[in-house]
Amino acid sequence: MLERGPCLFTPARWISWAGHFVALLLALAAFVCCQREAPLDLLQVSAVLPAEAQFGDAVQVVGDGFALGNSPTVTLRGEVYRAGQAPVAVEASFHAETDSQRELSVQLVRDLQEEFCGGPETASHATFRGDVQVAIAAKAPGAPPVTGTLHGAVLELYPAVRTQIAEDRQAALGREVLAFLGVEVARADAGGLSVIRVAPGSRAVAADLRPGDRLVRAGGVSVLQPSDLMPEPARVFEVGVMRAEVEHSLLVDADGFSPRPPASLQWGALLVGVVALGLVFFASPATRVLAWLTQNFVAHRRLHVRVTSRQLSQPRPEASSVGLIHRLGGGIGLIVWFGIAAALFSPLLRRGAIDLTLGLLTVMFGSAALLGVWQLVRGGRVGPRWSLLKGMRAALLHCVITAPGWLAVLSTCFETGVDFDDMVRAQGVAPWNWNAFANPGLLVLFVLLLLTALPRFGRSAGHLAGARPLRISWGGRRDSLLGWLYLCSMSAVAAIAFLGGDAWPGELSSSSRTWFVPSFASSLVLVTKYTALVLAVAFLRALCLNVTVEQWGPVSLRICLPLAALAVGVAHAWRSLDAFPPFWHWVKEGFGPISVVAAVLGGAVLAWRVSSHLRRSSPPALSPWI
Fold this sequence. Notes:
Blueprint: H1 11-35, E1 40-41, E2 44-49, E3 52-54, E4 58-64, E5 72-82, E6 88-98, E7 103-107, H2 113-117, E8 126-136, E9 146-158, H3 164-181, E10 183-187, E11 193-198, H4 203-206, E12 214-218, E13 221-222, E14 236-243, E15 246-253, H5 266-282, H6 286-313, H7 324-327, H8 330-345, H9 348-351, H10 356-379, E16 381-382, E17 385-386, H11 388-416, H12 420-425, H13 440-451, H14 481-498, H15 516-543, H16 549-575, H17 582-613
Parallel strand pairs: 1-9, 3-9
Antiparallel strand pairs: 2-4, 4-7, 5-6, 5-8, 6-7, 8-9, 10-11, 11-12, 12-13, 12-14, 14-15, 16-17
């Protein structure tokens, strides 16, 4: 007997090799950092004048050593404070012009107004606190730039574009803040707001605010108008006052002013939301269906293990394992999948006269209509005769099954149209910004759209509860060309309308799509989403034990179709939460991350339960209903 040599791929050796690899990377990074020359801090930056500026205007940077010949760059690096909001870290660079050895002229471009002051509808005064750095590139190639930094700079920035609605809202907020605190103020000559009167028993009295004090700061915002006193969502906020030419910091009770929860509660709300969605899911009939599907999966895996062990002892050609091609429907399914994948992969179709999404909708509608006709012809056969009544019943069941899918697609088309680029731009890049996770109504519609391709077209095996064939068929040989055409076109439309389309790895503009690399990458991601949906529906078909149209039709009529109509109403009502108080807007924006985290945790728990039940002889029970 030959003696087995030592194994080279032990866990200890893997850990050792990984440690050496990490050490090599760290050494290489340290070498590169040491070779990079640091910038020369030779410039002197004294002040930025004026201290108050509006976007679109120019400010002067005062210092020394600016006339070096090359164009300088001024960078604002610090935090921006706005009334009622948490501070935001910013780093923005502006091109400057050299006026003299001691002065630079910097144009505050309006393109950066939203980053500092917000959009036109919500624009307000902002206070920048941080560093102002001036950098002048060296003339010699590869030489470090010459820099100078002003630390602790304070700039008051005002929006250039501001609607009358935003101004009226700020004035109303100012009156609400003064009434909430219980003070009367007037504009002070030295800057800030002077306290004229303090209401007895008010929050201002509890914070030791006195008449004659001058309000100069609220959090990090310089107080220039009453709306600057608006606190961010918190229990207390800090107010800076000048009293006898000495600045004091007072803590004012702000609990109850803002209906928005504090930002520190977001992680807690995420946990509570995930638990709430989990309780709703496990209290619904979906857990019973999930347990049934899991039992089928475990039964298939055990059957596969028995067949594999039998093959090892006595090979049989008919007991060959099922590969990816069979899961894609065999030869017919593979051809259909490849045709739609080629259409999704072709960037030229998006720039042509034929819209890609409209073409996919036409294929989806046409294949569904032809399947309905096929159901009319085949469903009416009763022995040697054909019954119109039975044929119409079979066609009607097919229409009932596909109706939730049309409601799902139309609910997104009503908002963005049927153009591919419009659907992509209406969704974000992150998964919680996709339509599938945008609100509970669209999430339900997305699931119902996938369920329209669940039943297969074949002879009925009785009621759905008795659909228990001896073997789960993972292949698609029983499916016709029309069946796979509907499945693949439906998966492509679902990937575009509900999974963000090709909006990855970033938002690609129309001009950047003409470049090959980003267009190829976005098309590859879209084809990956489409293929994953095709495989997922085919996998679900196998778990459902080849449910036929006759078996699924009553379920769709009683559950899926009413649920789709209700989900359409929920989807459109969910968007109206923006008009309600900020708390509901916060709830609306948080549903996406909560649903994504819940889906990931649910998938992990399901995989763990399935793996544990595979080692048992008794059937699994994921739900107390089973």
